Amino acid sequence: MDTPGTPALASPRIIPENSRLAFPLANTPLTDLSKPRCAWAQTDPLLAAYHDAEWGVPERDSRALWEKLMLDGFQAGLSWLTVLKKRDAFRAAFQGFDPEKVARMGPEDVERLLADPGIIRSRSKIEATIGNARAYLAMQARGEDFSTFVWTMAGGAPVRQRRRVPADVPAQTPLSQDMSKALKQRGFKFVGPVIVYAWLQATGVVDDHLDTCWRCHGGH
Question: Please, which of 51, 97, 124, 141 could form a disulfide with 67 given CB 3.0 to 4.6 Å?
Fold first, then answer.
């Protein structure tokens, strides 16, 4: 289920650290606020740091891709900033987003997580994350690597876009629709096409930095 809204991921959008990213957010000081950025990244220093260090950086690690998809699922109906502020707590609660550990979680763990004030306490999203860990492992057991699955559907390389203004950025695309359908067929939940598109943007499968942004097409 997706809830469209204003761009917050060009766009963590309102919808419904990963330690292996190339530019760790925690080690990236905001030293140049004068750089031109995507509009959504100009509203908060934490968003600006995330934009500069992580958003749109191509991610090819399967576990890291899965973690980000889970966080985007928790974002549904909320702003990305809300999730970003709680990301460390999410990682602690879900044991580093290790799919094998998350897949072993049961009813007692669900109740424990529902009592954790550091995360978004939604039973449906918590249970979906546990189920999605099992779906991830089922793919793995069939010999289907998650990263290979994602990048093959995208054509093997980042999809480069021309986005001049925020209004040019869609909420979903045929690629996100196809990816959403394929994920659902594999047992994933909270993977509607709007959530999936935000995830593809965030993980660099799609490059949606505005043409005026210093990070456009991997700029440094």
Answer: 97
Identify the pLDDT of residue 12: 59
For residue range 93-114, what is the model confidence (pLDDT) as tens digits? 999 999 999 999 999 999 999 9
What is the C-alpha to C-alpha distance for residues 69 and 94, in angstroms, rounded to an integer? 14
Alpha-carbon span 176 to 166, nearest angstrom: 18
Element containing residue 69 per DSSP (H, E): helix 62-75
Residue with tokens 């965030």: 202
Choose among 96, 95, 74, 77: nearest CA to 85.
74
Please report the domains of the chain, with CATH numbers, ordered by start residue. 25-218 (1.10.340.30)
Rounded to whole angstroms, the Cα distance separating 176 from 161 reads 14
